[in-house]
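Ticket closed. Logging final result for Radical SAM core domain-containing protein.
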Amino acid sequence: MAIELQQSRLAFSIVSSAARVRVCAPLGKCAGLGNLSRRNFSQAAEALEINEVEARPEVQVKDDKIISPRKFLLGKSEKELQDLCEEMGEKRFRGKQMYLLLYKVRKAEIQEFTNLSKGFREKLISEGWEVGRSPIHHKVNSVDGTIKVLLKLKDSRLIETVGIPADEENNRLTVCVSSQVGCPLRCAFCATGKGGFTRSLKPHEIIEQVLVMEEIFKQRVSNVVFMGMGEPMLNMASVLAAHRCLNEDIGIGQRMITISTVGVPNSIRKLAAHKLQSTLAVSLHAPNQRLREQIVPSAKSYPLDALMEDCKEYFSITGRRVSFEYTLLAGVNDSKELAFELGELLHHWDMSHHVNLIPYNPVADSLFQRPWQKSVQTFVETLAKCRVNASVRQTRGLDANAACGQLRNQFQKTPLEDESLVKSV
Ligand code: SF4
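Final structure:
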Protein backbone atom coordinates (compact mmCIF):
# COMPACT_ATOMS: atom_id res chain seq x y z
CA MET A 1 0.00 0.00 0.00
CA ALA A 2 1.37 3.39 -0.85
CA ILE A 3 0.47 6.45 1.13
CA GLU A 4 1.55 9.63 -0.53
CA LEU A 5 1.80 12.74 1.61
CA GLN A 6 1.99 15.34 -1.14
CA GLN A 7 5.34 17.00 -1.02
CA SER A 8 8.47 17.70 -2.95
CA ARG A 9 12.25 17.71 -2.93
CA LEU A 10 13.29 15.09 -0.39
CA ALA A 11 11.63 11.76 -0.98
CA PHE A 12 12.50 8.41 0.43
CA SER A 13 10.86 5.05 0.79
CA ILE A 14 10.39 2.97 3.85
CA VAL A 15 9.68 -0.74 3.74
CA SER A 16 7.85 -2.06 6.76
CA SER A 17 6.87 -5.65 7.34
CA ALA A 18 3.23 -4.74 6.84
CA ALA A 19 3.41 -2.44 3.90
CA ARG A 20 5.60 -0.31 1.74
CA VAL A 21 4.92 3.26 2.73
CA ARG A 22 6.23 6.03 0.56
CA VAL A 23 6.55 9.33 2.32
CA CYS A 24 7.73 12.49 0.72
CA ALA A 25 9.27 14.47 3.55
CA PRO A 26 7.77 17.85 3.02
CA LEU A 27 9.63 21.08 2.67
CA GLY A 28 6.53 23.16 2.12
CA LYS A 29 2.97 22.43 3.00
CA CYS A 30 1.71 19.03 3.96
CA ALA A 31 -1.59 17.35 3.34
CA GLY A 32 -1.66 16.55 7.06
CA LEU A 33 -2.55 13.30 8.78
CA GLY A 34 -5.89 14.46 10.09
CA ASN A 35 -8.12 12.65 7.62
CA LEU A 36 -6.37 9.30 7.32
CA SER A 37 -8.03 6.10 8.52
CA ARG A 38 -6.75 4.69 11.80
CA ARG A 39 -4.57 2.04 10.09
CA ASN A 40 -3.15 4.47 7.56
CA PHE A 41 -2.63 7.06 10.27
CA SER A 42 -0.54 4.60 12.27
CA GLN A 43 1.51 3.66 9.22
CA ALA A 44 2.06 7.25 8.17
CA ALA A 45 2.89 8.21 11.74
CA GLU A 46 5.44 5.41 11.96
CA ALA A 47 6.88 6.49 8.64
CA LEU A 48 7.25 10.05 9.85
CA GLU A 49 9.10 8.75 12.86
CA ILE A 50 11.33 6.49 10.76
CA ASN A 51 11.99 9.60 8.68
CA GLU A 52 13.98 10.86 11.64
CA VAL A 53 16.23 7.84 11.72
CA GLU A 54 16.60 6.85 8.10
CA ALA A 55 16.56 10.06 6.14
CA ARG A 56 19.83 10.83 4.38
CA PRO A 57 22.23 12.64 6.69
CA GLU A 58 22.51 16.36 6.17
CA VAL A 59 25.63 17.36 4.31
CA GLN A 60 27.85 20.38 4.48
CA VAL A 61 28.37 22.17 1.22
CA LYS A 62 31.35 24.41 0.58
CA ASP A 63 32.04 26.04 -2.79
CA ASP A 64 29.23 23.89 -4.23
CA LYS A 65 31.03 20.70 -3.12
CA ILE A 66 29.72 18.24 -0.58
CA ILE A 67 32.47 17.94 2.01
CA SER A 68 31.01 15.54 4.58
CA PRO A 69 27.81 14.59 6.35
CA ARG A 70 26.96 16.86 9.26
CA LYS A 71 27.29 15.17 12.65
CA PHE A 72 26.35 16.72 15.98
CA LEU A 73 27.95 16.39 19.41
CA LEU A 74 25.06 17.87 21.38
CA GLY A 75 22.87 15.05 22.65
CA LYS A 76 25.69 12.52 23.00
CA SER A 77 26.23 10.95 26.41
CA GLU A 78 29.59 10.95 28.19
CA LYS A 79 30.18 7.34 27.14
CA GLU A 80 29.30 8.07 23.51
CA LEU A 81 31.76 10.96 23.50
CA GLN A 82 34.46 8.74 25.02
CA ASP A 83 33.76 6.08 22.37
CA LEU A 84 33.99 8.72 19.66
CA CYS A 85 37.37 9.90 20.93
CA GLU A 86 38.65 6.35 21.03
CA GLU A 87 37.44 5.71 17.46
CA MET A 88 39.33 8.80 16.37
CA GLY A 89 42.55 7.62 17.98
CA GLU A 90 42.35 9.85 21.08
CA LYS A 91 42.40 8.93 24.77
CA ARG A 92 38.99 8.28 26.37
CA PHE A 93 39.45 11.08 28.90
CA ARG A 94 39.14 13.52 25.99
CA GLY A 95 35.50 12.42 25.82
CA LYS A 96 35.02 13.53 29.42
CA GLN A 97 36.56 16.90 28.53
CA MET A 98 34.20 17.24 25.58
CA TYR A 99 31.27 16.33 27.82
CA LEU A 100 32.13 19.10 30.26
CA LEU A 101 32.68 21.61 27.45
CA LEU A 102 29.29 20.77 25.93
CA TYR A 103 27.07 20.55 28.98
CA LYS A 104 28.79 22.49 31.78
CA VAL A 105 30.84 25.20 30.05
CA ARG A 106 28.32 25.27 27.16
CA LYS A 107 30.71 25.97 24.30
CA ALA A 108 28.85 26.43 21.02
CA GLU A 109 31.70 25.82 18.57
CA ILE A 110 34.35 23.10 18.33
CA GLN A 111 36.96 25.83 17.75
CA GLU A 112 36.25 26.94 21.35
CA PHE A 113 37.20 23.50 22.76
CA THR A 114 40.64 24.80 23.64
CA ASN A 115 41.29 21.95 26.12
CA LEU A 116 41.60 19.71 23.07
CA SER A 117 44.61 19.84 20.79
CA LYS A 118 44.33 21.98 17.67
CA GLY A 119 44.92 18.88 15.56
CA PHE A 120 42.02 16.98 17.16
CA ARG A 121 39.69 19.96 16.81
CA GLU A 122 40.55 20.25 13.13
CA LYS A 123 40.05 16.53 12.64
CA LEU A 124 36.61 16.70 14.25
CA ILE A 125 35.61 19.59 12.00
CA SER A 126 36.99 17.99 8.85
CA GLU A 127 35.00 14.83 9.59
CA GLY A 128 31.81 16.89 9.73
CA TRP A 129 31.35 17.25 13.49
CA GLU A 130 29.64 20.33 14.90
CA VAL A 131 28.33 21.16 18.36
CA GLY A 132 24.83 21.65 16.92
CA ARG A 133 23.75 25.13 17.98
CA SER A 134 21.61 27.49 15.88
CA PRO A 135 21.53 31.28 15.74
CA ILE A 136 18.61 33.30 17.06
CA HIS A 137 16.68 34.69 14.12
CA HIS A 138 14.20 36.78 16.10
CA LYS A 139 13.39 37.43 19.74
CA VAL A 140 10.28 38.93 21.32
CA ASN A 141 10.01 40.00 24.94
CA SER A 142 6.60 40.13 26.60
CA VAL A 143 5.77 42.57 29.39
CA ASP A 144 5.15 39.64 31.75
CA GLY A 145 8.73 38.39 31.29
CA THR A 146 7.95 35.64 28.78
CA ILE A 147 10.47 35.50 25.95
CA LYS A 148 9.83 33.82 22.63
CA VAL A 149 12.62 33.15 20.14
CA LEU A 150 12.80 31.84 16.63
CA LEU A 151 15.88 29.69 16.05
CA LYS A 152 17.17 29.41 12.50
CA LEU A 153 18.14 25.80 11.77
CA LYS A 154 20.81 24.63 9.33
CA ASP A 155 18.25 24.25 6.55
CA SER A 156 17.01 27.79 7.17
CA ARG A 157 13.79 26.63 8.80
CA LEU A 158 12.54 28.44 11.88
CA ILE A 159 11.33 26.93 15.13
CA GLU A 160 9.73 28.60 18.13
CA THR A 161 10.86 28.26 21.71
CA VAL A 162 9.30 30.03 24.67
CA GLY A 163 10.90 30.79 28.02
CA ILE A 164 8.41 31.37 30.82
CA PRO A 165 9.79 32.63 34.13
CA ALA A 166 7.71 32.10 37.27
CA ASP A 167 6.71 34.93 39.56
CA GLU A 168 9.22 36.39 41.99
CA GLU A 169 8.38 33.94 44.77
CA ASN A 170 10.09 31.03 43.11
CA ASN A 171 12.95 30.61 40.79
CA ARG A 172 11.25 28.48 38.21
CA LEU A 173 12.03 28.84 34.52
CA THR A 174 9.93 26.75 32.16
CA VAL A 175 10.86 26.24 28.54
CA CYS A 176 8.28 25.20 25.98
CA VAL A 177 10.15 23.33 23.23
CA SER A 178 9.18 22.43 19.69
CA SER A 179 9.61 18.86 18.44
CA GLN A 180 8.89 19.41 14.74
CA VAL A 181 9.12 22.19 12.18
CA GLY A 182 5.40 22.80 11.77
CA CYS A 183 2.91 20.02 12.43
CA PRO A 184 0.97 17.62 10.19
CA LEU A 185 -2.02 17.25 12.54
CA ARG A 186 -3.77 20.52 11.76
CA CYS A 187 -5.86 21.03 14.89
CA ALA A 188 -8.56 23.53 13.99
CA PHE A 189 -7.48 26.30 16.35
CA CYS A 190 -3.70 26.00 16.04
CA ALA A 191 -1.41 28.44 14.25
CA THR A 192 1.30 25.78 13.88
CA GLY A 193 -1.12 23.43 12.16
CA LYS A 194 -2.11 26.23 9.77
CA GLY A 195 1.54 26.79 8.86
CA GLY A 196 1.97 23.23 7.48
CA PHE A 197 4.59 20.62 8.25
CA THR A 198 8.22 20.49 7.17
CA ARG A 199 10.16 17.89 9.14
CA SER A 200 10.86 16.44 12.55
CA LEU A 201 13.63 17.85 14.71
CA LYS A 202 16.80 15.99 15.57
CA PRO A 203 17.71 15.56 19.25
CA HIS A 204 20.26 18.41 19.28
CA GLU A 205 17.67 20.78 17.78
CA ILE A 206 15.42 20.10 20.78
CA ILE A 207 18.17 20.28 23.39
CA GLU A 208 19.57 23.57 22.10
CA GLN A 209 16.21 25.24 22.71
CA VAL A 210 16.71 24.70 26.44
CA LEU A 211 20.32 25.91 26.35
CA VAL A 212 19.42 29.10 24.50
CA MET A 213 16.83 29.99 27.14
CA GLU A 214 19.36 29.39 29.94
CA GLU A 215 21.67 31.82 28.17
CA ILE A 216 18.98 34.45 27.62
CA PHE A 217 17.62 34.31 31.19
CA LYS A 218 21.05 33.64 32.73
CA GLN A 219 19.32 31.06 34.87
CA ARG A 220 18.97 27.27 35.01
CA VAL A 221 15.90 25.86 33.32
CA SER A 222 13.81 24.03 35.91
CA ASN A 223 10.97 22.68 33.75
CA VAL A 224 10.61 21.60 30.14
CA VAL A 225 7.31 21.09 28.36
CA PHE A 226 7.12 19.51 24.92
CA MET A 227 4.21 21.74 23.93
CA GLY A 228 5.71 23.87 21.19
CA MET A 229 5.45 23.29 17.47
CA GLY A 230 4.74 19.72 16.40
CA GLU A 231 3.37 16.49 17.78
CA PRO A 232 6.07 14.88 19.98
CA MET A 233 4.67 11.38 19.46
CA LEU A 234 5.38 11.69 15.72
CA ASN A 235 9.02 12.22 16.60
CA MET A 236 9.38 9.87 19.53
CA ALA A 237 12.97 8.75 18.84
CA SER A 238 14.30 12.31 18.95
CA VAL A 239 12.05 13.29 21.86
CA LEU A 240 13.30 10.35 23.93
CA ALA A 241 16.93 11.08 23.03
CA ALA A 242 16.50 14.75 23.98
CA HIS A 243 14.67 13.73 27.17
CA ARG A 244 17.62 11.51 28.18
CA CYS A 245 20.10 14.30 27.58
CA LEU A 246 18.04 16.98 29.34
CA ASN A 247 17.67 14.69 32.33
CA GLU A 248 21.08 13.01 32.61
CA ASP A 249 23.46 15.55 31.05
CA ILE A 250 21.77 18.89 31.69
CA GLY A 251 20.29 17.87 35.03
CA ILE A 252 16.57 18.55 34.66
CA GLY A 253 14.56 16.08 36.76
CA GLN A 254 12.29 13.70 34.85
CA ARG A 255 9.37 14.90 36.92
CA MET A 256 10.03 18.41 35.68
CA ILE A 257 9.55 17.34 32.05
CA THR A 258 6.12 17.11 30.40
CA ILE A 259 5.47 15.40 27.08
CA SER A 260 2.25 16.41 25.40
CA THR A 261 0.22 14.78 22.65
CA VAL A 262 -3.13 15.15 20.92
CA GLY A 263 -3.02 11.39 20.52
CA VAL A 264 -1.29 9.24 17.93
CA PRO A 265 -2.46 5.60 17.81
CA ASN A 266 -0.08 3.13 19.51
CA SER A 267 2.29 5.83 20.75
CA ILE A 268 1.18 6.34 24.38
CA ARG A 269 1.72 2.68 25.20
CA LYS A 270 5.13 2.81 23.53
CA LEU A 271 6.03 5.81 25.65
CA ALA A 272 4.70 4.13 28.79
CA ALA A 273 7.03 1.17 28.16
CA HIS A 274 9.99 3.51 28.79
CA LYS A 275 8.65 4.04 32.35
CA LEU A 276 9.67 7.68 32.48
CA GLN A 277 8.75 9.66 35.54
CA SER A 278 7.61 12.51 33.32
CA THR A 279 4.08 13.82 32.95
CA LEU A 280 1.99 12.85 29.97
CA ALA A 281 -0.21 15.78 28.92
CA VAL A 282 -3.04 14.79 26.61
CA SER A 283 -4.73 17.53 24.61
CA LEU A 284 -8.37 16.53 24.95
CA HIS A 285 -10.26 19.74 24.05
CA ALA A 286 -13.64 17.95 24.09
CA PRO A 287 -15.40 15.36 26.28
CA ASN A 288 -16.94 13.38 23.41
CA GLN A 289 -15.81 11.94 20.10
CA ARG A 290 -18.15 13.98 17.89
CA LEU A 291 -16.98 17.37 19.14
CA ARG A 292 -13.37 16.27 19.43
CA GLU A 293 -13.25 15.31 15.76
CA GLN A 294 -14.27 18.84 14.84
CA ILE A 295 -11.50 20.41 16.89
CA VAL A 296 -8.80 17.76 16.38
CA PRO A 297 -9.24 16.18 12.89
CA SER A 298 -6.75 13.39 13.66
CA ALA A 299 -9.16 12.17 16.38
CA LYS A 300 -11.12 10.47 13.58
CA SER A 301 -8.35 7.89 13.51
CA TYR A 302 -8.12 7.50 17.28
CA PRO A 303 -11.46 7.12 19.05
CA LEU A 304 -11.75 8.81 22.43
CA ASP A 305 -12.30 5.49 24.23
CA ALA A 306 -9.06 4.09 22.79
CA LEU A 307 -7.20 7.25 23.77
CA MET A 308 -8.54 7.14 27.35
CA GLU A 309 -7.72 3.44 27.64
CA ASP A 310 -4.12 4.18 26.60
CA CYS A 311 -3.93 7.05 29.13
CA LYS A 312 -5.10 4.69 31.86
CA GLU A 313 -2.41 2.25 30.81
CA TYR A 314 0.20 5.04 31.02
CA PHE A 315 -0.96 5.77 34.56
CA SER A 316 -0.89 2.07 35.56
CA ILE A 317 2.60 1.53 34.19
CA THR A 318 4.27 4.75 35.34
CA GLY A 319 2.18 5.69 38.38
CA ARG A 320 2.18 9.26 37.06
CA ARG A 321 -1.08 11.14 36.98
CA VAL A 322 -2.16 12.16 33.48
CA SER A 323 -2.69 15.80 32.70
CA PHE A 324 -5.59 16.59 30.36
CA GLU A 325 -5.26 19.85 28.43
CA TYR A 326 -8.52 21.51 27.45
CA THR A 327 -8.41 24.65 25.32
CA LEU A 328 -11.58 26.61 25.98
CA LEU A 329 -13.05 27.97 22.74
CA ALA A 330 -15.91 30.44 23.14
CA GLY A 331 -19.27 28.89 22.25
CA VAL A 332 -17.65 25.65 21.07
CA ASN A 333 -16.56 23.60 24.08
CA ASP A 334 -16.92 25.94 27.07
CA SER A 335 -20.50 25.21 28.21
CA LYS A 336 -21.54 24.00 31.63
CA GLU A 337 -23.05 20.84 30.06
CA LEU A 338 -19.72 19.95 28.46
CA ALA A 339 -17.95 20.54 31.79
CA PHE A 340 -20.31 17.96 33.35
CA GLU A 341 -19.65 15.58 30.48
CA LEU A 342 -15.90 16.02 30.97
CA GLY A 343 -16.29 15.24 34.66
CA GLU A 344 -18.25 12.07 33.82
CA LEU A 345 -15.68 10.98 31.27
CA LEU A 346 -12.80 11.34 33.73
CA HIS A 347 -14.65 9.52 36.51
CA HIS A 348 -15.58 6.72 34.13
CA TRP A 349 -11.93 6.09 33.31
CA ASP A 350 -10.92 6.30 36.95
CA MET A 351 -7.25 7.27 36.83
CA SER A 352 -5.27 9.90 38.69
CA HIS A 353 -5.56 13.03 36.58
CA HIS A 354 -5.48 16.80 36.47
CA VAL A 355 -7.24 19.12 34.03
CA ASN A 356 -5.49 22.19 32.67
CA LEU A 357 -7.95 24.66 31.20
CA ILE A 358 -6.44 27.00 28.65
CA PRO A 359 -8.55 29.98 27.57
CA TYR A 360 -7.96 30.21 23.83
CA ASN A 361 -5.36 32.67 22.62
CA PRO A 362 -6.75 34.00 19.30
CA VAL A 363 -4.56 33.63 16.17
CA ALA A 364 -4.85 35.48 12.87
CA ASP A 365 -7.72 34.31 10.59
CA SER A 366 -9.06 32.02 13.29
CA LEU A 367 -12.75 31.15 13.45
CA PHE A 368 -12.48 30.77 17.20
CA GLN A 369 -12.77 33.34 19.97
CA ARG A 370 -11.39 33.64 23.46
CA PRO A 371 -14.02 32.56 26.04
CA TRP A 372 -15.58 35.07 28.43
CA GLN A 373 -14.08 35.10 31.90
CA LYS A 374 -17.51 34.16 33.28
CA SER A 375 -17.66 30.99 31.13
CA VAL A 376 -14.20 29.97 32.28
CA GLN A 377 -15.26 30.48 35.89
CA THR A 378 -18.45 28.43 35.43
CA PHE A 379 -16.50 25.64 33.72
CA VAL A 380 -14.06 25.46 36.62
CA GLU A 381 -16.84 25.50 39.22
CA THR A 382 -18.73 22.76 37.41
CA LEU A 383 -15.63 20.56 37.31
CA ALA A 384 -15.12 21.23 41.02
CA LYS A 385 -18.70 20.08 41.69
CA CYS A 386 -17.83 16.89 39.77
CA ARG A 387 -14.77 16.53 42.05
CA VAL A 388 -12.36 17.01 39.17
CA ASN A 389 -9.08 18.71 39.94
CA ALA A 390 -8.65 21.57 37.48
CA SER A 391 -6.66 24.74 37.09
CA VAL A 392 -6.79 27.56 34.60
CA ARG A 393 -3.51 28.19 32.87
CA GLN A 394 -2.58 31.78 33.00
CA THR A 395 -2.02 33.04 29.45
CA ARG A 396 1.56 34.22 29.28
CA GLY A 397 3.06 36.42 26.63
CA LEU A 398 -0.19 37.46 24.93
CA ASP A 399 1.68 40.44 23.53
CA ALA A 400 4.48 38.21 22.26
CA ASN A 401 2.42 36.15 19.80
CA ALA A 402 2.05 33.57 22.52
CA ALA A 403 -0.01 31.00 20.63
CA CYS A 404 2.14 28.16 19.37
CA GLY A 405 3.21 28.80 15.77
CA GLN A 406 2.00 32.39 15.60
CA LEU A 407 5.40 34.06 15.56
CA ARG A 408 6.93 31.54 13.19
CA ASN A 409 4.07 32.02 10.71
CA GLN A 410 4.84 35.73 10.61
CA PHE A 411 8.40 35.08 9.56
CA GLN A 412 8.35 31.93 7.52
CA LYS A 413 6.24 30.45 4.79
CA THR A 414 9.18 29.13 2.76
CA PRO A 415 12.82 28.42 3.68
CA LEU A 416 14.76 31.56 4.48
CA GLU A 417 17.53 32.32 2.10
CA ASP A 418 18.64 35.81 2.92
CA GLU A 419 21.38 35.60 5.57
CA SER A 420 21.09 39.33 6.15
CA LEU A 421 17.73 38.68 7.79
CA VAL A 422 19.44 36.92 10.70
CA LYS A 423 19.39 38.97 13.84
CA SER A 424 21.17 38.22 17.04
CA VAL A 425 20.41 39.33 20.54
S1 SF4 B 1 -2.16 21.73 18.56
FE1 SF4 B 1 -0.25 20.55 18.56
S2 SF4 B 1 -0.80 18.66 17.47
FE2 SF4 B 1 -2.42 20.16 16.98
S3 SF4 B 1 -1.71 21.13 15.05
FE3 SF4 B 1 -0.97 22.37 16.77
S4 SF4 B 1 1.13 21.64 17.16
FE4 SF4 B 1 0.06 20.07 15.95
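The chain has three domains: 10-58, 75-130, 136-413. No further action required.
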